[in-house]
Amino acid sequence: MSEKRSVSEMFGCNVFNDCVMRERLPKAVYKDLKKTIEEGTDLNPEIADVVANEMKEWALEKGATHFTHWFQPMTGVTAEKHDAFITPTEDGKVLLEFSGKELIKGEPDASSFPSGGLRATFEARGYTAWDCTSPAFIKETPDSTILCIPTAFCSYTGEALDKKTPLLRSMQALDIQATRLLHLLGKKNVKNVNTSVGPEQEYFLVDKEKYLQRKDLIFTGRTLFGAMPPKGQEMDDHYFGIIRERIGKFMKELNEESWKLGITAKTQHNEVAPAQHELAPIYASNNIATDHNQLLMETMRRVAERQGLKCLLHEKPFKGINGSGKHNNWSLVTNTGKNLLEPGETPHDNQQFLLILSAIIKAVDEHADLLRMAASTPGNDHRLGANEAPPAIISIFLGEQLEDVVKQLVTRGEATRSKHGDKLASGVHTLPDFEKDATDRNRTSPFAFTGNKFEFRMVGSTQSISDPNVVLNTIVADALAEVCDELEKVDGDLQDVMMEAHEITKRMLTDHQRVIFNGDGYSDAWVKEAERRGLPNIKSMVEAIPALIQDKSVKMFEKFGVFTKAELESRVEILYEQYAQTINIEALATLDIAKKQIVPAVMKYQKTLADSVAVLKQTGLDTTVQESLLNDITENLKKLYAAIGVLETETDKAQSMEDAAEQSCYYHDVVFACMDSVREPADKLEMLVAKEDWPMPSYGDLIFEV
C-alpha cells in the first residue's frame, strides 16, 4: 500500500509548476521564462533546451516513459500523440533525450481534425506550439505515465485549428485594452490585466453495468427513451443532501487525482436531480482554468470507470429532470492583485468600477447573439429556456445595490448613495446576527453579477469553456477600446479624464440599460418584455451559429486578431457539421434501439399476453382487463412502428442534403421532431410492459440505484 500523503504534499505533485521550475532551472533561465509567462513577452527560444532537459529529468523521476503535446482541437475534447524519450545509439542501445525543438514544436496530422475547410484531406501538415503559460503535467493511468505539454494547434498556413489559440489571442486583446484604460485613469503601475475564471462543473453518475445496457447512453450520452419514475426531483431532497458512500468514494478519489494535477477542486455537493452532482474549483487564470476544466472532465470519466460507475456530462441525459451546466465565473484581475470587478463599500463612488461595469453592459447588449452562440451545443438546446437553466434571452442581473446606482446615474446624472445589507436576525438568541449582502442572488439570469465577478450561467456541461471566454474577452476588449479612444482625446489632466469617464459611463448605461433585468427570467412575462425591449431570443444552436459571421462580428474579431474571417467561416461550417452529425447519430440510435430492442420486446410480451387471454377465455374467466391492456399495447405498437418509418424517411432525406446550414436546420426542425414521435409511444409502452420484459434499465434504475 502506498504511503498516504497530506493534501498539501499531494497538491501539484504532478505539475511542472513555478515551485519546480524555480528549484530546477538555472536562475537566468527561470527569470527569462517567468517574464514571458507573467508579462507576455516573446519566448526566448535559446532557453528551450535547458527547460526541456529539466522537464524530462523531472518526468523520468515521476516514472514517465513518453511525452505528448496535449492540445484542444475543434472536436471539443483533448488530443495527444505519445512519443518515447528514446534516441537510438550506434551500439544498439538508446539514450533518453528530450530537446528544446521537441518541447516547442510538434506535428500532428491537421487533416484528421475538424478544420472547416482550412485544411484539405491531402494537406496534412499542422503544428502544435508549446504554451508556456500553462504548466506541463504528468498524467498517470494504470497503463502509462505521460509527460503532457499544453500546446496550441495551428495549420501549416497559420490558422487556428483549436480552442486554445483564440483564447490566448482574446486574453491578450483584453489585457492590452484593460491595461490601456487603467493607464489613462492614472494606474501607471499596472503592467497587465488577466481574466480569472472559475468554472463550476455539473455531472451525473450512474452504475456502469446499467449504463452498458443502454445503447442510447453509449452512442449519444443521453437517454433517447425513458418514462419518468414515480419520484423525480420534486421533493427537493437531493440538493445538498447527504452524499452516499459510493459517491463519496468517487469524490474522494476525484479530488486526489485533481489535486495532483494542480486543479483546485474546492466545493462538492449533490445537485438538484437524483444522481446529479457538482464540483467547483478556485479561480485560476483563464487559460489555466480552461486546461484544468478539460482535465477535470477527463479525470471524472476515468475515476468513475475505475469505480464501476459512468460519468455523464451531457447537458440533458434524462428527459424530465434537471440537466447539467457549467457556470463560468469571470472577472478581471491586475498584476498588482486588484480585482477590477470589486465594487467596494461604496460602489457609487467607485468611478473606475462603474466605467468598467458600464463597458461590460454595453458589450453584452451589443453582442448578445455572440454570447448565445458561445453557449450553444446540441445538448444545450434541451436545457436553455427550460425552468432549470437560464432562458435563451441574454440579460444581466446586477442586484438591488448596483441597479439602484445605475438608476441614479441614468435618471439624475450622478449617484450619491449605495444600498447596504441589513442585519440578518434569526430570532434565536443563541444564533449570531450578521450583515446580509447588499443584494439577493438570481438563479434565472444568464449573466449575473455576483459580488465581484460575472457568472455566465448558460454554458453547457460538455463544453470547453474556451468558447464562451473567447467571446466574452473579445467583446469586452472591444467596448474598453472604444472607451479608451474617447478618453485619449481629452485635452487636460487626470481630473478632466475622470470627468469624461463619468460622462461616458452615464451614456453607456443609458444606451444599454435595456439588457439589465433583475426579475424572474423563467416567466412568460419576461419573454414578452424582452421582445418589447428588442432583445434577441435565439432558441436553438442552428439559429445562433450565423452570429459568428455577421459583419460586426468579423470586423471585431479581426480588429483584435482573435479570428480571421476564414477562421470564423471554418468554425461556422464545423458547428453546422457537428450539429447535423450529432442529431444524425441520435436518429440512427433511436431507430436501432426501437427496431432491434423495443419492438421485439413488446411483440414478445404482446404474444404472451394474447396467449394468456386465449387460455383464460377457454376457462370461461372474464378477460376484459387483459384485452384492454392488449389493445393499449397494440395501438401504441402501431404508432411506434409508423413513427419509425417516418423517422427513417426523414433521416435519409437529411443525410442527402449537401448544404450544411440547410441540413442542420432540417435535422433541428424535422428529424428531431420525428425522434420525439418515436419516443412518445415507446415511453407509454414502457409503462404497459412488465419490467422484467423491458429490454433496458429504467430511469428509476439509473438515477436511484447508484
From TrEMBL:
UniProt EC number: 6.3.1.2
GO molecular function term, any single one: glutamine synthetase activity
Pfam family, one: Gln-synt_C-ter
Single biological process term from Gene Ontology: glutamine biosynthetic process
Keyword line: Ligase
Domain GS beta-grasp: 65-158
GS catalytic domain residues: 163-598
InterPro entries reported in the protein's UniProt record: Gln-synt_C, Gln_synt_N, Gln_synth/guanido_kin_cat_dom, Gln_synth_cat_dom, Gln_synth_gly_rich_site, GS_Type-3, GSIII_N
Family: Belongs to the glutamine synthetase family.
Protein name (database record): Glutamine synthetase type III, GlnN
